[in-house]
Give the backbone structure.
Amino acid sequence: MATWEGLRSYIKSKYAVAEDQFEFLMLGFSMDDGRTQKVIVRRLRLGSDEWAEIASPVCPVGSIDPLEALRSNGQVVVGGLALADWDENLIVFRHSLPIKDLDLDEFEVPFQIVISLADRFEQQFTGADTY
């Protein structure tokens, strides 16, 4: 799985994909507690290297106190809250990793963490289940 196409194929073989564009995949998950969470995996470039960004919506920008967001970021090991670069009104929880030499555990563990933390933060910050 050392290419973006290899990662896309892996994701499509393991998960139900809601939207499949060449540069990104969008998926939806049902959480154990009945909540739902969307996640986007997209290809990024850093120089000549391919990276995968895993991002999941948390809340609109005005729904969170910036100090609370920074405190929350300081408590996580993988990923962090960020302003979505595709929607300046959306806070996401995201993590990026290089695709070169990527193995399944290096993708699956942060993938699952992003989904669960984004849902937890959405519930904590808004009390809603919008995403």
